[in-house]
């Protein structure tokens, strides 16, 4: 890995990496969101800069110092993330969607704080679906050499089930690479170490990819190695 970093094998490439979790405001003080820390996306951004790439990091509510050498663009909601990723992604050689976008947003955000009244009051939130940013990038891709990378965090009981879920998601998204990891029971979110599988084909005939374990920095380099391999096959 030190050799790969020294080789600056991503020199001349422009990457867009999204990180963190989006938040959908219910009212000025409350939101619907998730626990994504942004660590994985940041690790990829850092690794890519080390290897010579230009990197835009679209950071959704990431509470971490911005990595050196990276242009960081902060965003809040999924629609904001979509606008920033789509704009920066136009000129990018690689887009990595490591962020966890909220799939739904309140049908209407309240401009004032929601107040509670009597103890029997119920509150029903109506949510509408957000656009799928990655699927949009795939559909609108004009540069055939552009590499699009998705992530999938799935709850699964067995590795086989995990890979099946990953294959189905890869088929649905149509991206070039899906970084698959298991979540739940304290795994992944907010932790420095992780375990991933790199899926390049939804085909059930292909062997299931091995699990790669290690620090998010190490895994970031594995992901970038795979991206380079995909590019060299174009
Ligand atoms: N993603 C996206 N736009 C969304 C939701 C997800 O671009 N509105 C991206 C994520 O950044 C990730 C990939 O799609 O790279 C898979 O996200 P995931 O939440 O696992 O998939 P969904 O299609 O939202 O399916 P579900 O949450 O129902 O499993
Ligand atoms: Ca989702």
Automatic annotation (TrEMBL):
Cofactor(s) listed: FMN; Mg(2+)
A GO term from the CC aspect: phosphopantothenoylcysteine decarboxylase complex
Keyword entries, A-Z: Decarboxylase, Flavoprotein, FMN, Ligase, Lyase, Magnesium, Metal-binding, Multifunctional enzyme
Reactions performed catalytically: N-[(R)-4-phosphopantothenoyl]-L-cysteine + H(+) = (R)-4'-phosphopantetheine + CO2; (R)-4'-phosphopantothenate + L-cysteine + CTP = N-[(R)-4-phosphopantothenoyl]-L-cysteine + CMP + diphosphate + H(+)
Pathway noted in the entry: Cofactor biosynthesis; coenzyme A biosynthesis; CoA from (R)-pantothenate: step 2/5; Cofactor biosynthesis; coenzyme A biosynthesis; CoA from (R)-pantothenate: step 3/5
Region (Phosphopantothenate--cysteine ligase): 15-234
This enzyme's EC code(s): 4.1.1.36, 6.3.2.5
Cofactor: how bound: Binds 1 FMN per subunit.
Keyword Acetylation recorded: no
Residues annotated for CTP binding in this entry: 103, 113, 131-134, 151, 169, 173
The keyword Ligase is annotated on this UniProt entry: yes
Biological processes annotated in GO: coenzyme A biosynthetic process; pantothenate catabolic process
GO molecular function, one term: metal ion binding
Location of the DNA/pantothenate metabolism flavoprotein C-terminal domain: 10-229
Family designation: In the C-terminal section; belongs to the PPC synthetase family.
Function field: Catalyzes two sequential steps in the biosynthesis of coenzyme A. In the first step cysteine is conjugated to 4'-phosphopantothenate to form 4-phosphopantothenoylcysteine. In the second step the latter compound is decarboxylated to form 4'-phosphopantotheine.
UniProt-recorded name of the protein: Coenzyme A biosynthesis bifunctional protein CoaBC
Residues of the full protein shown: 189 to 422 of 422
């Amino acid at each position: 890995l030190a050799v790969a970093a020294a080789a600056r094998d991503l020199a001349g490439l422009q990457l867009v990496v999204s990180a963190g979790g989006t938040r959908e405001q219910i009212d000025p003080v409350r939101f619907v969101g998730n626990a994504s820390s942004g660590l994985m996306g940041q690790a990829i951004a850092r690794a890519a800069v080390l290897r010579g790439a230009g990197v835009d990091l679209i950071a959704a509510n990431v509470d971490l110092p911005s990595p050196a050498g990276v242009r960081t663009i902060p965003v809040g909601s999924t629609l904001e993330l979509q606008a920033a990723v789509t704009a920066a992604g136009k000129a990018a050689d690689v887009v990595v969607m490591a962020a966890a976008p909220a799939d739904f947003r309140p049908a209407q955000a309240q401009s004032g704080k929601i107040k509670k009244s009597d103890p029997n009051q119920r509150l029903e939130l109506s949510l509408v679906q957000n656009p799928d940013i990655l699927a949009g990038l795939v559909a609108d891709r004009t540069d055939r050499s552009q590499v699009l990378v998705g992530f999938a965090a799935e709850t699964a009981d067995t590795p086989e089930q995990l890979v099946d879920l990953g294959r189905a998601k890869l088929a649905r998204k149509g991206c070039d690479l899906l970084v698959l990891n298991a979540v739940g029971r304290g795994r992944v979110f907010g932790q420095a170490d992780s375990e991933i599988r790199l899926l390049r084909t939804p085909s059930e005939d292909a062997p299931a990819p091995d699990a790669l374990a290690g620090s998010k920095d190490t895994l970031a380099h594995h992901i970038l190695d795979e991206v380079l391999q995909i590019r060299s096959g174009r």
